[in-house]
């Protein structure tokens, strides 16, 4: 049993899987953030329609969020501060899930969740939105617990740090 769990851990933290997860998250959040920036008016309307935050705070949140998504996506892409990017991304995703569930239970009729593709009204809003958000949490969690030594700035910096630490000779 212990060997099987060790094999599973090795598989779930494999460097190739980490690259795939980082790439998927980078692609998703860079494009999502860019779509929100290029359609900021539509996105602000959607954020306010959730009625979770006061209008003035929803406006600030709606203007700030796309840039956070892009920055987190870039950090995933280059593999820099990858665990921190995963933490920030997980916090964003949990806040999206809470807002989604609250509005589903309220019976709010949103034509678009504001997640991606703001020009399409076919995306809709409902439990499928929540399930998609849960789906995004899987690679976020994998990246958080994964090894970031392959094709990442984290790996390069870690290697430099290890090679620069030399024992200090005792001076007498």
Automatic annotation (TrEMBL):
Protein location: Membrane
Gene Ontology CC entries for this record: plasma membrane
Keyword line: Membrane, Transmembrane, Transmembrane helix
Coiled-coil annotated residue ranges, if any: none
Membrane-spanning segments: 12-34, 70-99, 134-153
InterPro entries xref list: DoxX-like_oxidoreductase, Methylamine_util_MauE
Record carries keyword Chaperone: no
GO biological process entries: methylamine metabolic process
UniProt topology in membrane: Multi-pass membrane protein
Domain of life: Bacteria
Ranges of residues in domain Methylamine utilisation protein MauE: 16-144
One Pfam family recorded for the sequence: MauE
Protein name as it appears in the record: Methylamine utilisation protein MauE domain-containing protein
Source organism (scientific name): Candidatus Wirthbacteria bacterium CG2_30_54_11
């Amino acid at each position: 049993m212990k060997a099987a769990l060790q094999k599973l851990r090795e598989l779930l933290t494999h460097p190739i899987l980490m690259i795939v997860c980082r790439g998927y998250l980078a692609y998703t959040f860079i494009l999502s953030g860019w779509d929100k920036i290029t359609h900021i008016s539509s996105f602000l309307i959607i954020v306010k329609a959730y009625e979770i935050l006061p209008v003035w705070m929803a406006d600030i949140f709606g203007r700030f969020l796309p840039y956070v998504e892009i920055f987190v996506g870039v950090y995933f892409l280059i593999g820099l501060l990858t665990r921190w990017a995963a933490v920030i991304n997980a916090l964003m995703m949990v806040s999206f899930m809470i807002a989604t569930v609250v509005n589903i239970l309220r019976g709010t009729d949103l034509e678009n969740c504001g997640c991606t593709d703001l020009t399409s009204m076919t995306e809709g809003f409902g439990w499928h939105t929540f399930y998609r958000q849960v789906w995004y949490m899987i690679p976020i969690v994998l990246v958080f617990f994964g090894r970031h030594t392959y094709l990442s700035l984290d790996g390069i910096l870690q290697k430099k740090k290890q090679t620069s630490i030399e024992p200090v000779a005792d001076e007498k």
